[in-house]
Specification:
Chain lengths: 138, 361, 142, 314
Amino acid sequence: MEAEEFIEKLKELLGRNLLEYHIGRRNRVFVKVKNGYHRDVVSWFQEMQAHLSVISSVDLGDELELVYHFEIRPLEVGLKTSASKAKPHIETISDIYPSAAWYEREAMEMMGIVVVNHPDPRHLFLPDDYTEFPLRRY
Amino acid sequence: MDMVVQFGPQHLALAEPERFKVHTEGEKVVDVEVAVGYNHRGIEKLAERKTFEQDILLVERICGICSMSHPVAFTQAVEDIAGVDIPERANYLRMIIAELERIHSHLLWAGIAAEIIGIETLFMYIWKDREYVLDQLEIITGNRNHYAWNTIGGCRKDITEKHIPPLLTALEVVERRTEYYIDAFLRNRTIRARLVGTGILPREDARKLCTVGPTARASGYAVDVRKDDPHLAYDKVDFAEIVLGEGDNMARAKVRLLEILESVKIIRQAAKAIKGLPEGDIAVPVAEIPPGESVGRYEAPRGEVFHYVKSNGTFYPERVKVRAPTYSNIQAVPTMLMGDTLADVPISLASIDPCFCCTDR
Amino acid sequence: MFEKVVNYCRKKSPWLLHVSCGSCNNCDIEVLAALAPRFDVERFGGVLKPNPRHTDILVVTGIMTLKMTNVLKRLYEQTPDPKAVVAIGSCAITKGIFAETYASYGPADAVVPVDAYIPGCPPRPQAILHGVVTALNALWGG
Amino acid sequence: MFPYRWPVLIRVSAVRIGDLMDVQPFISVLIVPGLLFTSVMAFLYAGMYRKVRARMQNRRGPPFVQPFYDFIKLLSKDSIKPEKSGMLFTWAPIIALASVLIVPILFPIGGLSFAGDLIVVIYVLNVSAIMLAVGGFSSGSPFGAVGGSREVTQLFAYELPLAISMVAVAVKASSFSLVGIAGAQEAGGMFFYQLPFACIAFLSIIPAKIGLQPFDIPEAEQEILGGPFVEYSGYRLAIFTFANQVKYFVVISLAVILFFWRNWWQFLITGFLLWLLFIFVKIISARVKTDQSFVFFWQYMGILALVDLVRVVI
């Protein structure tokens, strides 16, 4: 499935909520989705047996962004959602992809994103009494 | 008697600190709790404070025994952002060192696995033969590990004509010895008694938990970045992707040992191809890095290394996200250990070839 | 005279415990390579022991990460006297390339008293052996 | 060391090596097959073990006298007694050492001997194995407890074939004393070709009894950090390791006496050769699990020993 075809499918699925997309070299695709709609995109990926590589968290200044990296055989998709720094709530996808639980725990402790109804939101890498969020830049 | 046995942060079987709380009834494992974070050095924060050039050396020190995989993934991501195509010879150079590192890393794992199930002699033999590969790496790159081989836009050093003959003789020795070790692992009755049938990871779980590398390939889930997303010069050399189905410890051992033979084949083809290319043009100067983001992927000995780099136009990266193969393989450990006895726990843990310093960054 | 004999025996049979506190596992693998046939540490009587009760020399690698520091302190207290600590690799000596990280309490000597430093990233197995042997001579050589 | 008033009821048997008036029991207890000779042989066996193992792994390996250095060094270290551990924590190694040192006194090379000393040997060797388990349990650490329970299960595993093969030899030599068995072999030729199955059964038990691969499950260093030895340090650990090293020598020479006896100097040589064989077996085999060792001993070795016992009785 080529990049353009993948974007068309996403447009029908999401319509206006597909904020922006960008096709890079060596079929890397980055797609920005409004917060809350990323769960149905992820369940569509799951039907296509996509491989979840990692979830990275980025600090955009006034917003905190989560990038879900999937590998759908020829494509390397980066699904992005973001939430404001004041109320950084993003839905969990660990019920669809069990291995996402750890990546979300890391995003929570490093960037301060609150993942809603996460199975066990403890610290992963940092000791439990570590309070600030080291990866925040601004 | 229900007991909690803790394979603590400091354990002979684990070269690095990681804590596994194993709940057992008698000697049968009931539940496993994994605690990571003992090796967390805050590399992602450091990466944002160093320039791209310095980051290559920092990223190389995420993991000592796969110290070629992180720089390759990182530089590929940055080269994608900068829109630079590195010269043909640089691709081959990186691939030769990468495959040499895969050989010494798989040999390292085979030795430690033999040590854990009790055969110390096999550990000594394997690590003696691993020194041949390390000598070649030292002759070519100057250091046994931490080769400082990459720069953005190509390589820093070159493999000249006089490096090739000793490299090929060393490969002969390694190939002959690996066949002997494959024979030893498959035919020795006591090794079979310990490895066959323990630590089973079914294919469905391997796919659901998104495991990578030999751990996934041994369970039948064919994931190999060299084939799926060809980088470096892997599409110009032919090699077999080894996928087995049993998913137990012996299958993982077989996958790694057979991959050594594949790597030897790859290096031979690359060494032949390098003779044709002009010596010297190994790097393309990269003036500045435009704002953008990209993903660098590379098939490390343990699995897929994943680098997500985001740049903001300056000479410092905005965000560097690193995901090491053990980060996803370690989540498959509880399903592997369920039902095994306490004696199988260390060998099953070691069978995913854990590299905790990569996991914790 | 008796003291000389005991010190000689201590020098001749150093039992090692390898503690990795947040290293990039290159120094750990070089410590294991020192056991391999090419740089055999058993020539000097050295054996890698599983727990602190049986050991005399603590081989420490890595920057002291947040979680691993009190583990190292406990291991140090569990080791019976007379004992020695050898810090291996530039991470254990000066935190090396991870100097400005937030996740470390400082190099090895900020946590446990260190007797010998072996610089290098990674130090070669010969350097590790040389460091351990000189530490032995300095402590119990006489 | 030994109580001066040795119990008078022991019948002093005929002396093989020269007649040494009535000081002979002290010599045989303290020097010849007794304490001094055994400890020297134990250190030699252990040193040989480490040197040959290293040589087989093409390493240089430690000097021959390395176990002596380790012993003195361990004695000089301070010994930590965990507060959770019981009183037996200190006595377990001492009893283990004492029980193992009794066996060589009964050896036919000039040692004491009385009617039923084969039974004493079986009993005493078991005491030292149980003391290892007791040491593990009393150390208060979960690894020690697991090591202790493994030691006990392994004891049950290899006890059956051991007892049967010894009884087969005793019935063949029609005497329950080591001197009697040795005498029978000197007269009628070595037992190992007359009782081949019992010999195989006995030789296969030895790695389990000593704690060598493939059956050194109790002291599995990688899995349970040294099993029963996990909390021991200082002089207590020195005594325990010395007891283990003496057990190497004792069990090997017991095998030589029961099956390969001709005369006393051949006894020493065969002991070393047999020890080389076991070091080789240790080197090429991995450590099996408890249930696998149980199956191995009860099914295969038990039946072999039984076959020979039946053959001898009929």
